[in-house]
Amino acid sequence: MNEQNDKVASVAERVESLDVRKLCKRCWWVFLVGGIALVLFGVLALINPAVALLVLSIYFAASVMVHGLVSTAGALQHRDHEGWWVILLMGLLGVGVGLYALLNPPVSMAAFVYLVAFMAIFLGVSLGMLGYRIRQQTDREWMLYLTAALSLLWGLFIVLQPAAGALSVVYTIATWALVIGVLKILFALKARKLTDTVVESVAELRQGAG
């Protein structure tokens, strides 16, 4: 009985794997286009970081405004719930801040840079606290301490040197975009050649079912 259950589970896993492979095969171009877009952004950001920072800050401001609009609409649709007006105020505030940042690019650029700095500082503090809590379970908490220190230093550097910090933010994002873009392109090219693998999986699935 156990052997039969294991056989059924194995067939189910192969079916799931086959479905995922088919999906990757059919959508390989999505990964390719996304990877190329990221690579192009990374290259352009390295060539012209000022323009890249402007694009990122506009996207940030637009996302704040969109989130405010969605929150406002959600609050108005649920006026029968207690506390709906709080969400409404937050939504209206988000719309106002986002719209103001869109109309004033320097403000949105500064806000984006300081947001990244805040996130880096928050991450550093969180990792430091995590390392302190697990110090009795592992002797490698120093890795967390090191990562926390680097994150804190980078965040403080951005706060104290906004101009240089803004460039470092752009270069960091550009490097990430290049690495992720190249990996997505490589995956897309590999996913495009999954035909033979799928055929082999079908054969294995039939053998397993038999």
Low-confidence runs of at least 5 consecutive residues = 4-9
Q: Can you give the helix content as a percent range? A: over 70%
Q: What is the H-and-E element order?
A: HHHHHHHH
Structural class call reads mainly alpha
Quaternary structure type: single chain
The averaged pLDDT comes out at 80
Outline = globular
Indicate the radius of gyration in whole angstroms.
Answer: 24 Å
C-alpha termini separation: 16 Å
Largest sheet: none
Strand content: under 5%
Number of strands: 0
Output the number of helix runs.
Answer: 8
What does the secondary structure layout of this molecule look like, with pairings?
Layout: H1 2-26, H2 28-47, H3 49-77, H4 84-103, H5 105-133, H6 141-160, H7 162-192, H8 195-209
Helix pairs in contact: 1-8, 2-3, 2-7, 3-4, 3-5, 3-7, 4-5, 5-6, 5-7, 6-7
Task: Describe the 3D structure.
With 210 residues, the protein is mainly α. The protein has 8 helices and no strands. Helix 3 runs antiparallel to helix 4, helix 5 packs antiparallel against helix 6 and helix 5 crosses helix 7. The protein is globular, with a radius of gyration of 24 Å. The two termini are 16 Å apart.
Keywords:
210 residues, mainly alpha
Give a summary of the structure in a few sentences.
This protein is mostly helical. The protein has helices at residues 2-26, 28-47, 49-77, 84-103, 105-133, 141-160, 162-192, 195-209.
